[in-house]
Design goal:
It is a single chain. The chain is an alpha+beta fold and about 350 residues long. It has two domains: about 90 residues; about 240 residues, Bira Bifunctional Protein, Domain 2 (BirA Bifunctional Protein, domain 2, 2-Layer Sandwich), CATH 3.30.930.10. The chain contains twelve helices and ten strands. The strands form two sheets. A seven-stranded mixed beta sheet has the order 1-5-6-10-9-8-7. Strands 2-4-3 form a three-stranded antiparallel beta sheet. A hairpin with a 3-residue loop joins strand 3 and strand 4. Helix 2 packs antiparallel against helix 4.
Length: about 350
């Protein structure tokens, strides 16, 4: 009997030592199998009870069961120890150092093109111009025909146009707002026109997105343009020059530049001119740069506004906001504005 007790005590000690030596749960399960598995040492002892006499079987079974409980207790203790160690390691890996300063949320900023657009609106607003907005999917009438560009007019080939089903286009310029704004203006003041009285002048800019099939370092399929229109009874080319020179000087915050009007052709103005500018100082000094198209509003366009071209006259211009932004901020590739590269955009935040 003493030999049996000693043998069981040794077995329990061996099991506890094997469990303590297991570094992982998988190896612990392998150690468990050597003692409690189908062919384990304790399992074999239990199988041997069948050959004993009833009285001896009862006593020996009690001793083996007690040893089994001790082995299972050692097994469970090691399982818990391994689980606690794994949890502690996970907590250490995920620990937060609360003494470190917190992460401040990122500060957003306006896109450089948006900055340029807001600056343009502010400058012309100070000159008494309204700001108008209109649809980007435009009817052919407003985008072409009402601007003296009928269906068979060769000037349509000047625009690489995105056409939309149903007779619509993605507007190729913001000039359609000339007609839209003017027609509404005339409707509001029709009672004055009917009475032969002078109508308040039309003075408006229309900034916004426009679309043409074009893409390179200085052109984008989607770009931004600002259309300007001033119509009254006595608005001359001289007024166009005065307004645009004042605008350019205010936009670039310098009078150290030159402006020239170069004869050109647009179907909706007559006479027409390209507007070029040249800086006197800086990296672009001495180079003429095209910044706008302009001209006196064509008489047919005045008629399409619902006005008498014998009485009303005016000027219009269209400037690329992206190009003005490139010149103001020293950007040499238009695509940088639309790539979404935060390294570039953070410079303007």
């Amino acid at each position: 009997m003493n030999d049996t007790v000693s043998s069981l005590a040794t077995l329990v000690a061996d099991a506890a030592a094997a469990f303590d030596a297991a570094p992982t749960p998988a190896e612990l399960e392998n150690a468990k199998a050597r003692f409690l598995g189908k062919s384990g040492r304790l399992t074999e002892l239990l199988k041997g009870l069948a050959a004993l006499a009833p009285e001896e079987k009862k006593a020996q079974g009690a001793r083996i069961n007690e040893a089994k409980q001790q082995v299972e207790a050692a097994l469970n203790a090691r399982r818990q120890a391994l689980a606690d160690a794994e949890l502690a390691q996970q907590l250490r890996a995920e620990a937060l150092d609360v003494t470190l300063p917190g992460r401040t949320p990122g500060q957003g900023g306006l896109h450089p093109v948006t900055r340029a657009m807001e600056r343009i609106e502010q400058i012309f607003g100070s000159m008494g111009f309204d700001v108008a907005d209109g649809p980007e999917i435009e009817a052919d009438w407003f985008n072409f025909t009402a601007l003296n560009t009928p269906q068979d007019h060769p000037a349509r080939s000047m625009h690489d146009t995105f056409y939309v089903e149903g007779g619509y286009v993605l507007r190729t310029h913001t000039s359609p707002m000339q007609i839209r704004y003017a027609v509404q203006h005339v409707k509001r003041h029709k009672h004055l026109l009917d009475a032969g009285l002078p109508m308040p002048e039309i003075r408006v800019i229309a900034p916004g997105r426009t679309y043409r099939v074009d893409s390179d370092a200085t052109h984008s399929p989607m770009f931004h343009q600002v259309e300007g229109l001033w119509v009254g009874e006595n608005i001359s080319f001289k007024d166009l020059k005065a307004v645009y020179v004042d605008f350019i000087q205010a936009f670039f915050e310098t009078k150290d530049l030159e402006i020239r009007f170069r004869p050109s052709y647009f179907p909706f103005t007559e006479p027409s001119a390209e507007i070029d500018m040249k800086f006197a100082t800086g990296p672009l000094a001495g180079r003429w740069l095209e910044v706008s198209g302009s001209g006196q509003v064509h008489p047919q366009v005045i008629r399409n506004m619902g006005l008498d071209p014998e009485r009303y006259i005016g000027f219009a211009f269209g400037s690329g906001i992206d190009r003005l932004a490139m010149l103001r901020y020293g950007v040499n590739d238009l695509r940088l504005f639309f790539d979404g590269d935060l390294r570039f955009l953070r410079q303007f935040a």
